[in-house]
């Protein structure tokens, strides 16, 4: 799933789990931004790295890939098609989800 450089980053990481998730979410964001599926895309054909904002090319699309700083327990990334980062604002929203079998739905 990873380029040689991404594999080297994982091997050298002090937190391999978080590094794996960071690179994986960046790849997933890039694939989805291009309207492709994970199962039909050669994930080794493009490099997203782990740190900061980066440029990537996938299926003829220029992309900008960046991390979303959620909190220390979560890893997320965003990718946009184009060669510059648009003004994007992400607002955290606390939500409570209830199972439909709870008393509220009875």
Overview of the molecule:
This protein is an alpha+beta fold and 106 residues long. It is built from two helices and three strands. Strand 2 (61-71) and strand 3 form a beta hairpin. Helix 1 (4-12) packs antiparallel against helix 2. The longest helix has 18 residues, at 16-33.
| SSE string | HHEEE
End-to-end Cα distance, whole Å, is 46 Å
Structural class: alpha+beta
| Tally of separate helices | 2
Radius of gyration: 16 Å
Report strand order across the widest sheet.
1-2-3
The shape, in one word, is globular
Beta-strand content bin:
15-25%
| Topology, number of strands | 3
Give the low-pLDDT segments. Answer: none
- On the 0 to 100 scale, the average pLDDT is 83
Helix content: 25-40%
Biggest sheet statistics:
3 strands, antiparallel
Provide a short characterization of the protein structure:
The chain is an alpha+beta fold and 106 residues long. It has 2 helices and 3 strands.
Note the topology:
Blueprint: H1 4-12, H2 16-33, E1 54-58, E2 61-71, E3 74-81
Antiparallel strand pairs: 1-2, 2-3
Helix pairs in contact: 1-2
